[in-house]
Amino acid sequence: MNTTGLTEHSAKSHKHWLVFTDLDGTLLDHFNYSFAKAVPMLAALRQHDIPLIIATSKTFAEVQPLRSQLRNGYPFIVENGAGIYLPLSFLPEEQLHQFSGVALHQGYWRLALSQPRAYWQTLLTQAAKDFHGLFASFTQLGTEGIARATGLSHQDARLANEREFSEPVLWLGDDNRKSQFIVHMTALGANVLEGGRFLHITGNSNKGRAMQWVADAFALRDGHRFTTLAAGDGKNDVPMLELADAALVMRSPVNPTLCLNRSHGYIESPCAGPLGWAKGINHFLQLGVS
């Protein structure tokens, strides 16, 4: 395992951890979406009362069944940081008023950090004139196309298309035109985040900003600062990995390993997928899970 600048002693000295994790290619296997090899670590986190906060490009609808499978009752971040959901019992309503933009939504407190999906669909329709045939949005792909592109079941593909704040794009052109497309969309006011499979068109939001908001909410609730540990494998995870106190850069079976600007406080996982995730998390938290 490649380690950079964070000793086991310094990791053990922190008492209050928050673990933020990407899903696909990180906690979930890139190919079959299984987290079976991470089950012992997930149990250890619960045993030690260490919150695990999902930070994903997935939708609210997708995350709900996953949270049940993971036995996870903590706040969660969706659509690359464009939306944050808190359980109703997480903070008293009077404390939530300290944060602007929080509203009730589908049985949770929700903070929206981006314009709605329809706004980005309109911009993509305009962009199609200059990049005709070079991309396919989720709207264009539909359930059938999303299932083919991701390997998801039709049911899961339908949930993936229930987006609130963003529009994923499957890029069909070369890298040069992709760079031009990103510049074009950025000039229109979009934030283009590159994930493991798709470009995500959204607003002025990212996983790093959302992570900080959630960490602040935990600190307000519990009365002390938390040490943040973030895990991810895609370019859309970089803002979170750069901002966290400690970072686990996941090896990918399909993409080059990310290079961060930070010079210390991070490691690369020893292998890809949930087993590499578990070993990397254990390196920092030293919970004795093999």
UniProtKB/TrEMBL annotation:
<dbReference type="GO" id="GO:0051479">
    <property type="term" value="P:mannosylglycerate biosynthetic process"/>
</dbReference>
<keyword id="KW-0460">Magnesium</keyword>
<keyword id="KW-0378">Hydrolase</keyword>
<dbReference type="InterPro" id="IPR023214">
    <property type="entry name" value="HAD_sf"/>
</dbReference>
<dbReference type="InterPro" id="IPR006381">
    <property type="entry name" value="HAD-SF-IIB-MPGP"/>
</dbReference>
<dbReference type="GO" id="GO:0050531">
    <property type="term" value="F:mannosyl-3-phosphoglycerate phosphatase activity"/>
</dbReference>
<dbReference type="InterPro" id="IPR006379">
    <property type="entry name" value="HAD-SF_hydro_IIB"/>
</dbReference>
<protein>
    <submittedName>
        <fullName>Mannosyl-3-phosphoglycerate phosphatase</fullName>
        <ecNumber>3.1.3.70</ecNumber>
    </submittedName>
</protein>
<keyword id="KW-0479">Metal-binding</keyword>
<dbReference type="Pfam" id="PF08282">
    <property type="entry name" value="Hydrolase_3"/>
</dbReference>
<dbReference type="InterPro" id="IPR036412">
    <property type="entry name" value="HAD-like_sf"/>
</dbReference>
<dbReference type="GO" id="GO:0005829">
    <property type="term" value="C:cytosol"/>
</dbReference>
<dbReference type="GO" id="GO:0000287">
    <property type="term" value="F:magnesium ion binding"/>
</dbReference>
